[in-house]
Amino acid sequence: MKNVIGLSILLTLSLCLGCYDDKGNYDYHDFNEVTIGNRGFDTAYLLTSYVDTLRISPELEFKLEENKHLTYEWVARSNAVGFVEYPISNDRNLVYPMSLSAGEYTLFFKVKDTLNTMEYSNATAFQVQDLLTKGWVILGENSNGEAQMDMITYSVDTMVLKNILQESGLPVLKDPVKVWVVDNYVDNMIHVSTGDGTYRLNREDFKGGDHTHLKYNFFDPGSLEHFTLQDVAQIRNYNRVAIIDDVLFHDSSMIQSSIFQNPANHYKGSYDLFDVGDKIAYNPQAMAFIYILYNKTEQRFVYAGGRAYGSPAGRCDTLKDTREDVEIFSWKTGLDYVTSINSRFLDGYSYTILKDDEGHRYLYSYVIMYQWGWESVVKKKKYLLDKATDFDKAKFFGASAQRTYLIYATGSKLYAYDYVAEKVQLLQDFGDQEITLLHCDLLVETGAGDDFFYVGTYDPSLPKETGGTLTKYRVVNDPNNIIVEKVPGFSWSGLCKIKSIDFKKN
Asked: Pfam families from the entry (predicted)?
């Protein structure tokens, strides 16, 4: 009886509902799903700020159809610390004249349906460089003897930028000496050394000012007269030693402080400074932190640096002869200093050229080594250089990375001398032009077969602002002949009278 009553009730409810007039809206719509194709997002972009335009026309597919309820957004997010975002467009198709600063970015494209708040996106990567990002930085002089900086930039097509210092914020500087581009994860500034002092420039925009004078990197800003940087060695990317105003400065803690400490051209227990040669001998290939200098006062080799306990950091110590190597040559030579040269030859040979009272020149070859946690300096051989033509007149020196060649220049003539075979060859006579620079590449192209050097020349018939030329040469690894070739496509004229060059990697 209970089942009959329940069935009756269900039938009654069914009839009542069947008579009800449903006034509701049940017109359902599908989501207008958007698919962003990979066209334009399947590659990374390299762009030059204020030169290139980033163009992407995204491929969009709609489940229904494109409508006016869709919004578009392009956002560039910096990959540097902070991940700063830069909205760059709200158009469907991106046309963006690049104006972001140099760096690495991620580009996001977002499509939003305002009806249902659904959002769709795709992304790609791009890198921004500026005209100053990469290339050879050239320091020279103009007709007034003032420092001029040009640059052969690789950022777009290889091109020459002129007079970079005019907009740098630096004062007018006389007597240019050296440009040093620091590649160090602590302090990556560009140093411009002149007779009026050394200034540091921001590597991104080459800006500086009175506040970037090198004296502010000393514990005592009044310790020197000029603060002219003459030579520097950046050992293992962070340990630096420099000769400034003819004084040696060393600081193994520069990885942290970037501060030059007290003069280091003295012995332990004495603060009497001895005269040192103008070049620092070091090995760019080894793990060693030792570097070699020549004590001109005592006419002998000294060393500093090193990582072993008791190593002379912040001072120098004499190199000692042993019974096994004293016959090669003595570290106490009794000869006058000419110059020192570093190379990538074999294990990374260093050379020091000395002369006696009769004018004979000698080549002392040695290698700074690092083996099994131990640093040492190994003597190689002493050579007489009397057969090298006009060597006594040479102003610029270098060494091959593959052959036993010294490269040297005097006046307008460029020579190579094989100090083992005692063979000399005139590589080129530039005639009326003056050789102003010889730069052997130790740090840029360092492959097994790379052996390049650069020669700067000046045409005195032209203004110093534009009379300079930089040419790249390659040493051919021929065991029987001295062969040096010009590198095709790398000879740049219209430069200043070149004094120094250095390479900016990024």
From this structure: PKD_2
